[in-house]
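Regression report. Comparing outputs from two consecutive submissions.

Submission 1:
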Amino acid sequence: MELKQYFKIMAKKWWLIALIVFAGVTAAAIKSTVLTTPIYFANSKIIVNQSNGTNDQVTSVNVGNIQTSFYLINSYKEIIKSEAIMDKVVEKYPDLNASPGEIAAKISVTAASNSQVMNLSYQDYSYKKAADIVNAVAEVFKDQIPNIMSIDNITILTKADPEANPSPINFNPIMNIIISFIISLMIAIGIVFFIDYLDDTLKTENEVGELLQLPVLAVVGKISKDDLKASRKMVVNNNKQVGDTSYATLNQ
């Protein structure tokens, strides 16, 4: 099948393609703007550094302490989500209205490779609540780690600002509409070609010739309803004229 034939198939069913694309884009727009509940993201950063000591001690063990901090980060990731920290967060900040299990399930702790910085992030339907919780976890973790690990090497670098007004992380209607348009268009074109594949009627003289393995000698043109009515009217008039002529001949 030539490229022109593909375009002819799509042009013939353009209304179906337009209908499917319109339905898909409309559904995506409604889903993105009306049915989607916004989710907000707040994060706080902490650094795992060397323990407090004199300047001479810090200078002499600086490299060793940094290497030790890398190993401690993996342990700290687990400790932050433990009941020892979560229970203290709920106990110290009862206004958060969140259970230890809920906080542990929603908080995320990450650290880049060969970095002493840990990133604490929390997602919630309220940005202020997310910021308050992630800040509370960072504070409690900093206070409790000396009791748990017998080492004071946590410093809070940045805190989430509860008064900020960020955009929801799941609210991007323009991108959703563009993606929906592309996917709907692909689906619509696929459906059109599938319908054409199932249609086994002969549409052109070339298809007839290929099927019968015979040359096409003549083609009957397509007759519209208006042309057919005009042709019938002409035949009736001609028959009437012939009848009148015959009657006149007999009278003579």
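Submission 2:
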Amino acid sequence: MKLARRYLISGLVQGVGFRYFILQRAGDYGIDGWTRNLPDGSVEVFAEGDREALEEFERDLRQGPGSASMSDLKKLIRDVPDFPKPGILFRDITPLLKEPSAFRLAVDRIVERYRGEEIDQILGIESRGFILGSAVAYQLGAGLVPVRKPGKLPAATLRMNYMLEYGQDALEMHADALKIGQRVLVVDDLLATGGTANATVALARQAEAKVVGCAFLVELEALRGREKLPDLPIFSLVTY
């Protein structure tokens, strides 16, 4: 169902390209409406669209020009063919990470989703999960637990094997990283086949922690990684 909202925006919003910014963002979200300058120097906006699109649009209005939108996140992810081996199309998030407004938006959206969930620890999966996980943990007031490949952690560890297309691999976590009953969130840059995320969830449950959910910057839907996490809510910012 479509909703309609009216906004009055004041401050330095005339003569700085603000109306163009509004029209651009409205197009990104499929929102109809109009905008006009008012005699008192403010800008009036009428917008019509679905609830989720209007909420994203309103967030962008609050941040103003120079902010990133959700559509910008996908544009900033670079396709690298034949990496790390022939036939693989690699989704490179480093261009997104180096854009301050885009990186901030990605972190903010994950934080908004889980604020109020009383998260005790973020489980960041090696290695780009460390980048996102650290920022999310800071904003949520949670700790960060690194989940690493075998042999990378110095103290006693818990270990979980998982299957690859050909063979198997493993992930480890310090045995004393989690306390019984702690509420944890798994964070990584990418959900593909779901093997690493599923192994990380298994590690948390082995430590008798409560897994609240899994959050990803990118999800490759065709690889059906969600099917390995059937009992958990999955939150992804960008899907392919």
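Expected: both submissions complete independently.
Actual: both completed, but the second showed a warning that disappeared on reload.
Relevant detail on submission 2: The two ends are 25 Å apart (CA to CA).
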